[in-house]
Every structure is written in structure tokens, then in C-alpha cells.
Design a protein that fits this description.
CATH architecture of the largest domain: 3-Layer(aba) Sandwich
CATH superfamily of the largest domain: Zn-dependent exopeptidases
Mean pLDDT: 85
Largest sheet: 6 strands, mixed
Bound molecules: zinc ion
Number of strands: 25
Shape: elongated
Radius of gyration: 29 Å
Low-confidence stretches: 308-316
CATH topology of the largest domain: Aminopeptidase
Strand order of the largest sheet: 21-20-22-25-23-24
CATH class of the largest domain: Alpha Beta
Structural class: alpha+beta
Strand content: 25-35%
């Protein structure tokens, strides 16, 4: 905070009652509602009264002084004092589109910059960069929430606050122009959510006749909804209703769209009543009896398919799927570490699921829990638990994608 009198004496601003006038012009500061009018434009500023003196926020007053006098003056937010410097950033432009946005900086000389990510913000430090025209820019909320421009004697810091829809960025420098393209998750490509079973294939039937196909559809829709609305991803479900879709068709949907990842949703079943907890599988060779049991259960759907499974085709695609083995394993770990919190950890597992074999993308199969377990079956049929699981799976998918595109 700055003492107002000292600035007013330097820049010949008169202070009368609640208003401060500059050179008898129509420009004034109104302390009653903390506004500053300049050429019919309204600016907000903050101030404090202390010992009968008015203190104003240096960040906003530096901008006001610039508007009044055209003197490029900056508030050093680290040392809390006004500094004077030559304007070196001539132009700053923000162009927001639906799936990307562009930031353009034009310099009066060749300036160096550094950029890094901090929580939900992209920080661009322009060394010796001074930009007096704005200290706050509001985004449209598609990818950019807002931009704060702060200065120190080392230059300008553009703090670009990003929304949840932000995916990655690219930097390009051509002479005195610096350009950032910020991409939304919509650019990532298709995510396929595959609700297990459906139609004539009920999947496992648990306590009180709870059908696997109903829970998988309900949870899958919730996952898709979160991925689309909160992060802006493009998501396709292999089925939207209670219909039968063959394993081959499910893989074809993914391959036709050149899907970036595939997540199949299922519920587990065990003869022992006490088995509980979610499991996440990636496609590989089952190693344990437990893994083989789940593999056999999920692959038994093949009995509903009209055509016999084409074994040769599966062997061919196995080789292709191998290329995604490491990525699939990582995707499984990202999802599992979200859904497993505070639960009996059954871990990430591997098995040879037919549904994953034909997909040419990293793919996993999530077992939400055991519908053979009385307590878990009850939980799995509630809206709140389904929503909680869906959110965690969506977060795990986003974690994997962040890791994938930013590494
Ligand atoms: Zn299943």
C-alpha cells in the first residue's frame, strides 16, 4: 500500500472530499465505491484509511498513474515500491477459441523469457519486460480463467490462471514476437468408456438380483459426464442404453475413432461372500489364479456372440496391443491409485481380456467392486457411491493424460 499524498504531489493530482482530480480534467478517483474513471472507462482500486491518511494499492495506482500521465510506472510486488521503467512489451494479445487459445507478446527489443507451471497457473516471466497497459485481464473461462500481470525490477510476470479444461501448451519464438498456444483437453482425441455387458448379456448377477450391466452403464455415463463437462474431453460410450454390443464391435468403435485410450467398466463376482474392493487390470498374461478367474468370468461373454471369436485375429492384435503394454500399465496405476484410497487394496492386475485385445490404444478394465458381497453390492447401487467412483476414475484418467502429454 502506498500513501496517496506523496503520489498526488508528484503527479499534480488534487484531492477534494471523496474525489481526487487530475489537472482539472474529468478524471477522478471515487473513494466511496473504489472506482477510477478515465475517458468513461471504469477501473477498480483498493484503499485503506490509516491515521487519517489514505493508502492505496500500489498495483492499481500504478496503472491509474499510467492512464493519467502516460508515465510507465510499475508496482514492484516483491519490494512493495513504485519503479519506473521503459515500456518494452508493446502488445499483448489473447485469442480464445473452443479447443485452444493463443497468447501473443510483441517486444520493442529482443527479450528473454521463462515459462513454468505452478498449481493451476502458467507463469511467463519476461525478463526486462514492462507492460503498463493492464494488470488484470479476464478470460472467457474456456481455457483461461484470468491473467494477472505483476512486475518487479526484473521484469513482468504474466500469471495465466487456467481452467480444468487446460491440457498442454507450446511455446514459439520468432524474433521479437513470443507466442504461446494453450491447448484444451478437447484436442487430446477420443476417450472410449466401455460399459461392460448389456442387453441379453447381464454380466454377473449379485445380491438381490443386482445386474452388472446396469451398474456398469450407470457408472460409465457418470464418468463420461465428468470428463466432458469438467475437463472438456471428447468421450464416446460403446453403449448408451441396455443393448448388446459384441466385444469386436466395442474394439471397432475405439479403432474407427482412433481412440487415445479405452476404459472398460465391470463389476466383480466371487464365490466367497467377503471378497471386496475395486481392481484395475491391464491386458497381459494372467499370472495368478485370481487373475485367471476374473479373466475367465469376463471372457465368458463370448458365448453370447454370434460369430465365433476369430482366434487368429486376436493373435495378430495381441502383437499390436503389446505396443501399448507399458502405457496401459501406467493408465491402470493412475486410475487405481485414485479409486483405491482408503480401501482394501487389491492392486493393479493383469489378464488376457478379449475386449482389450482388439483395441489399438492403451486400455484397461476396471472392476468397480464385488456385487457378490452384500455390503459392496448395496454401496454400488447407490447414486453417491457410483458418483464417487466415477469421479475417481475420471481423475485417474486425467492424471494419466497429464503425465502422457506433459512428459
Ligand atoms: Zn464384466
Amino acid at each position: 500500500m502506498l500513501l496517496l499524498d506523496s503520489i498526488f504531489s508528484i503527479y499534480s493530482i488534487k484531492f477534494l472530499e471523496n474525489f481526487a482530480y487530475f489537472k482539472n480534467d474529468t478524471v477522478f478517483l471515487n473513494f466511496q465505491d473504489s472506482t477510477f474513471f478515465f475517458k468513461d472507462k471504469k477501473f477498480k482500486f483498493s484503499y485503506k484509511l490509516k491515521n487519517n491518511k489514505i493508502y492505496v494499492d500500489g498495483q492499481s495506482i500504478s496503472l491509474i498513474i499510467y492512464r493519467l500521465t502516460a508515465i510507465p510506472i510499475f508496482w514492484d510486488y516483491k519490494e512493495n515500491r513504485l519503479i519506473r521503467a521503459n515500456e518494452t512489451i508493446n502488445k499483448f494479445q489473447l485469442i480464445e477459441e473452443d479447443d485452444s487459445c493463443i497468447l501473443i507478446f510483441s517486444f520493442s527489443k529482443n527479450l528473454k523469457e521463462q515459462a513454468w507451471l505452478e498449481d493451476n497457473a502458467l507463469i511467463v516471466h519476461i525478463i526486462e519486460g514492462f507492460y503498463p497497459k493492464f494488470n488484470y485481464i479476464s478470460g472467457e473461462g474456456k481455457i483461461i480463467d484470468s491473467i494477472r500481470i505483476l512486475h518487479t525490477k526484473e521484469g513482468a510476470f504474466f500469471k495465466i490462471f487456467l481452467t480444468n479444461k487446460y491440457g498442454s501448451y507450446k511455446k514459439l519464438k520468432e524474433g521479437d514476437v513470443l507466442k504461446f498456444t494453450i491447448y484444451s483437453y478437447a484436442n487430446f482425441g477420443y476417450i472410449i468408456i466401455d460399459p461392460g455387458h448389456g442387453g441379453k448379456d447381464p454380466g454377473a448377477i449379485g445380491k438381490w438380483g443386482i445386474k452388472e450391466k446396469d451398474i456398469t452403464l450407470s457408472v460409465s455415463k457418470k464418468i463420461a459426464n465428468i470428463l466432458r463437462k469438467e475437463y472438456g474431453f471428447k468421450v464416446v460410450l460403446t453403449r448408451e442404453t441396455d443393448t448388446f454390443v459384441s466385444l469386436k464391435e466395442r474394439a471397432e468403435i475405439a479403432n474407427t475413432l482412433k481412440a487415445k485410450l479405452f476404459v472398460s467398466i465391470h463389476c466383480n463376482y466371487a464365490k466367497e461372500d467377503n471378497a471386496s474392493g475395486p481392481e484395475t487390470f491391464f491386458l497381459s498374461v494372467a499370472r495368478t489364479n485370481e487373475e485367471r478367474a476374473v479373466e475367465a468370468l469376463e471372457n465368458s461373454v463370448i458365448k453370447y456372440e454370434l460369430e465365433e471369436a476369430d482366434e487368429i485375429k486376436y493373435i495378430v492384435s495381441d502383437i499390436l496391443q503389446n505396443a501399448y503394454l507399458k502405457e496401459s500399465q501406467r493408465l491402470a496405476f493412475f486410475i487405481h491409485s485414485r479409486i483405491n484410497k482408503n480401501r482394501n487394496d487389491r492392486g493393479v492386475k493383469q489378464a488376457g481380456f478379449y475386449v482389450l485385445r482388439g483395441v489399438y490404444a492403451p486400455s484397461v478394465l476396471v472392476e468397480l467392486g464385488f456385487i457378490s458381497n452384500e455390503k459392496e453390492a448395496k454401496l454400488l447401487s447407490t447414486e453417491t457411491y457410483q458418483e464417487e467412483l466415477a469421479r475417481k476414475i475420471a481423475e485417474g484418467i486425467r492424471d494419466y493424460i497429464n503425465w502422457h502429454i506433459r512428459r
